[in-house]
Amino acid sequence: MVAVRPGDVEATLSRVDPLRPVLLLFGPDIGLVRERARVFLAKAATGSTDPFGIVRLDGDEIAGDPGRLVDEAGTVALFGGRRVVSVRAGAKNIVPAVDALLAMPGLEAVVVIEAGDLKKNAPLRASCESSPRALAIACYADNERDLARLIDTMAAGAGLAIDRDAREELVGLLGGDRLASRGEIEKLLLYAAGEPRVTAAHVRDIVGDASALALDEVVDSALAGLSAEAIEAYHKALGEGMRGDVILGLVARAAQGLHLMRLGIEAGGSVERAIDGARPAIHFRRKPLVEKALRGWTAARLEKALLAVDDALLAARRSAALGPVLAERALLQLAATARRG
Questions:
Q1: What is the pLDDT of residues 271-283, one digit of tens each?
Q2: Do the beta carbons of residue 238 and residue 206 sit within 8 Å?
Q3: Which domains does the chain have, with CATH numbers?
Q4: Whether pTM exceeds 0.85
Q5: Cβ contacts of residue 197 below 8 Å, gap of 6+?
Q6: Angle, CA of 114, 123 and 70, to the nearest 5°
Q7: What pLDDT is recorded for position 78?
């Protein structure tokens, strides 16, 4: 297996391994997938004199012409240097093209493939993880430690210090998507430019709507039965470039976490203890909706709801054009089921 462990990701991405020239980046955090791809592609292209830079291919196009990926990877750079190819997977199957690439003798080009959330047995993930010529890196939503590190790094880069309570407040408002989080931090640092420190007041002034960008509002509102709020937040997320199937994936994971908490409650625990013991910790602004959801659902009903969300998620992934509509309908059905409870 050439799946990269979470603790080894940064070291792995710090250099181009000529023995493993194919890199698959996948996961529910599409923003993190794209950020890591952008940084690695720039590193791979360093020193190249090719004026055309990085060759970018659409996954759905190469699915219909599997040989094109091999042709592009095997083409000698016009002005010398390493050939760098970027592939963004879409709704269609690109596994035949990738398998042909991995079997290609003398592959010297660097190929970076960006994909969405892939299950362990997904063919694209399985092909890359089982090949000695590829690396596979999962990109999951940032945890509290990751977000704190990102905030500190960006603040230091802007020449600003940030108060501890401001950092804690900001961490609670971020986390659904790396690019959205980075955008909110950049906005905050610009707002606080010229001040001696970034304070909690700055965070409340400028990042008040970051929870919607982090998708917590979509998830919490749907599970609490608040249809209008869930759909309003959903359309905000779509406006920020998030895909319907990715949002449904986050809803499914949240429902799984809620299911585990309900099991603890039904075994004799309390709602308050379940919320206080949640890891990662639930931000105080989310607690009222999470508590409402925990009191409204049972573990058995959540199991049925999860099956329905999974079906909608699969349908949304199979049809990119209908994905946003299918995800919206699933959110409305989930919220309606929550209210009936």
A1: 998 988 887 678 7
A2: no
A3: 6-138 (3.40.50.300), 144-212 (1.10.8), 215-340 (1.20.272.10)
A4: no
A5: 160, 161, 162, 163, 166
A6: 60
A7: 61
